[in-house]
Amino acid sequence: MKVESEKGSEETYSSEAEVLASNHDNSILITDMPPIGEEDSRTPLSVNARQYLDKLIGQSPIFRMAKNQVVKISQHDVCVLILGETGTGKELVARAVHHLSARTERPFVPVNCGAIPQDLVENELFGHESGAFTGASCRKDGLIQEANGGTLFLDEIDALPLMAQVKLLRFLQDQEYRPIGSTKICHADLRIIAATNASITHAIAGGKFRKDLYFRLNTVSLVLPRLCDRVEDIPQLADYFLKKYTREFDKKISSFSAGAQDMLWHYAWPGNVRELEHTVARAVVLSEGPIIQPEDLRLPETLKVPRTHSFAEAKAAAISAFERAYLHKLLSTHQGNVSRAARAAKKDRRVLRELLRKHQIDATRFKSTSPDAPSQSR
To answer: Which ranges in 19-160 belong to alpha helices (H)?
Structure first.
């Protein structure tokens, strides 16, 4: 679909499969980052921090870029918005940001906003005083106080009710809040990391999410790639999960057969890394020999995708992964402006647009325009 933004007439192409990653004018753009090894040489990581960073498994260009961003973001005490499909590892990344930061010795408190009944959200976040409502026989601290000094991770932030959004916005502005039934203002010093697999701008347009809260949360945004966009990481991830679950289930399994490896490589992985983990765990349970066989994986044939291990195809896959990573970084640097990005890349604007269409990348998701800025289809 072609769209025209409020600030210009550049044409871009949208993809419903990709999660929105737009940055506000005041966002910190994470660009020109050195490889992780260089970052570590300047900022030595503790053993605990390295442990959490090592859990982010993968060496593909697009995932290495994400890991570099995690290291850089962790050094700045700002709000972070993590975007990505279900199963891409948003909580794992949030934990890494926390443990790489100066707050690592303080609590990391995760909460799934979509799992809390709407009438209990404010109570869960902000707590209550004794007698605040029927059944409130004693005072109770909320999750914000529990995370004081550390990090509060709000997953599925788009599921937060509007009234709770107002209170959260007030807290982000002043670092103060009022528990239910209290006349006293409380203070807390913590970092908020939010995550979603939905389009926040669509929620804003539908009146379900506050634009001002979006701007507060989106100081820095981090987009996690789908597993199908980093297929070269599948063997390393599968081996990691194999070792994990053979230890957990006390099974003597050493590897995957060639057929099983081929099946893992050719599967589409709509559930991303989480689906891969569950698939390997199931295979370990079902396997009756020392090697995982294709039948142990039990993957549907209907979700197979054409991939090959030939040199030419492997080279093409590596080039494609590089192009996606480069385009993501380029558009982030130039805030979605295709003309400036083309000049910086020394590419004709039409050629750059074709690359964006090839990789189904929507440049408007990197623009610094207001998320409810009007667009015009044509």
So the answer is: 36-42, 47-54, 61-74, 90-99, 121-126, 143-146
pLDDT surpassing 90 at residue 296 = yes
Nearest-angstrom CA–CA distance, 292 and 283: 7
Which of 179, 194, 225 is the last residue before a domain boundary? 225
Rounded to 10 deg, the angle between the 61-74 and 47-54 helix axes is 150
Identity at 207, one-letter amino acid code: G
135, containing H or E segment: none
Task: Judge if pTM exceeds 0.85.
Answer: no
- How many CB atoms lie under 10 A from the CB of residue 241? 20
Mean pLDDT of 357-374: 63
- What range does the domain containing 242 cover? 229-303
Identify whether the C-beta of residue 317 lies closer than 8 Å to the C-beta of residue 307.
Answer: yes
What value does the mean pLDDT of the chain take? Answer: 82
Residue 1, pLDDT score: 36
Q: Note whether 298 and 285 are within 8 A (CB).
A: no
In the predicted model, is pLDDT for residue 124 greater than 80? yes
Please, where are the H alpha helices in the chain?
A: 36-42, 47-54, 61-74, 90-99, 121-126, 143-146, 162-174, 200-205, 211-217, 234-248, 258-266, 272-286, 294-297, 311-333, 338-345, 349-358
CATH code, domain carrying 122: 3.40.50.300
- Boundary-marking domain end, from 279, 303, 327: 303
C-alpha separations of 2 from 208, 354, 364 in Å: 26, 13, 11
Query: CA-to-CA distance for 208 and 158, rounded, in angstroms?
Result: 8
The number of distinct structural domains making up the chain is 2
